[in-house]
Amino acid sequence: MLKLHHHPMSAASRFVRLVLGEYGERAEYLEERPWEKRRDFLALNPAATLPVMLEDDGPAIVGATVAGEYLDETRGVFQRDKRLLPEKPLERAEVRRLTEWFLGKLDSEVTRYLVRERVFKLEMSADAGGGPPDASAIRAARANLKHHLRYLGWLAESRDWLAGPRLSYADLAAAAELSILDYLGEIPWEKEPAAKDWYMRIKSRPSFRPLLTERVRGLPPVHHYVQLDF
Amino acid sequence: MLKLHHHPMSAASRFVRLVLGEYGERAEYLEERPWEKRRDFLALNPAATLPVMLEDDGPAIVGATVAGEYLDETRGVFQRDKRLLPEKPLERAEVRRLTEWFLGKLDSEVTRYLVRERVFKLEMSADAGGGPPDASAIRAARANLKHHLRYLGWLAESRDWLAGPRLSYADLAAAAELSILDYLGEIPWEKEPAAKDWYMRIKSRPSFRPLLTERVRGLPPVHHYVQLDF
């Protein structure tokens, strides 16, 4: 049995949850607030980052891309045309590049700031860094988001799915990030119709449903968050 | 034939060079100054990061971990007991966790700052961010380095190689980062004898030699940089 330490507003955690959903894998989900630096959690992952996955209480599988590779090696390999990493090394390299682009670059330039300022700071103690949001960080993240949406729109326009003809980790990585930004009402969808069309397609997949029903206490999502046709 | 766009002071580039060295792969090395945002380079990698690898002028293989996975799939798989990623999924997950720890966390908390402030700013134009070093960034990086050296020392003490009984990507990732920090004289080796012993072992490998002969213009390495027994 798989176990996943996650947080609903951690895009990296959502990525792994989408992969598990696509592969029809059941897992036990344990919510973790990484900023509390719980001793047992640090023992699993001294970097104190999410997600952390375990299989049958074995050693920790740390981080979204590491978990993604593990799931490809232990599940994806049996999925034939539903496998979320292609077979050919160069195609795998393109999927991995974009997966890193979204979970790394987009996350560190946009999502991480907005989630920290608009969500986590409300839940954090003053010691852990809680307090009022930093308006300049929010402004910078929103400016960066525009460039990322343009790139996403360009990918969505030029390819069936973001990394090529088939759904892949790249789509799930982008969707994980965007689903959080969309919850927060941060995405000007009308400016990027191709990106919107791609997101509607991925949002209607069964793997996405659990994400749409989650709520952050005291912070409801924008009204179109759950609408499949928005 | 492989081609690698790299920079001598890019730890991520050094990681791929060490992998190629361990596998005895020849490659053409092209030095790139990513802050110049050369148009042809941006076409290969819109993130403008190093390294970027190409095989037979095929599509770009972007980033150290993506290149590492590609080399494992196309070279490592034929290397038997010299393969730098183990065979078992859980062992691969541990190697990947540490590879990300060094190329991601250590790099972004330590190496990137020190290289930017002490090396790149000397070469950059004022437009690109050049100028005098920021003393507070250097101070913060040095403070972070202490924690990283302690963790590295602990790994080196508890295992033959950093991720287990065999040399792996984790060692090459750590060595890539440390070799740059050592060039700059930033490592208080005397405080972490187990880390020093591990570094002496990896430094004496033939794959390491090309790194030891490189020089940054106007910035010679500390005197022990090339000594195998220091």
Can you characterise this structure?
- The structure is a homodimer of 230-residue chains.
- The first copy, chain A, has 230 residues and is an alpha+beta fold.
- Chain A has two domains: 81 residues, Glutaredoxin (3-Layer(aba) Sandwich); 118 residues, Up-down Bundle (Glutathione S-transferase Yfyf (Class Pi), Chain A, domain 2).
- Chain A contains eight helices and four strands.
- A four-stranded mixed sheet of chain A has the order 2-1-3-4, covered by helices on one side.
- In chain A, helix 1 links the parallel strand 1 and strand 2.
- Chain A is globular, with a radius of gyration of 17 Å.
- Chain A starts with a strand and ends in a 17-residue tail after the last helix.
- At the A-B interface, strand 4, helix 3 and helix 4 of A face strand 4, helix 3 and helix 4 of B.
- Chains A, B: GO terms for molecular function: glutathione transferase activity.
- Chains A, B: Keywords: Transferase.
- Chains A, B: InterPro entries: Glutathione-S-Trfase_C-like, Glutathione-S-Trfase_C_sf, Glutathione_S-Trfase, Glutathione_S-Trfase_N, GST_C, Thioredoxin-like_sf.
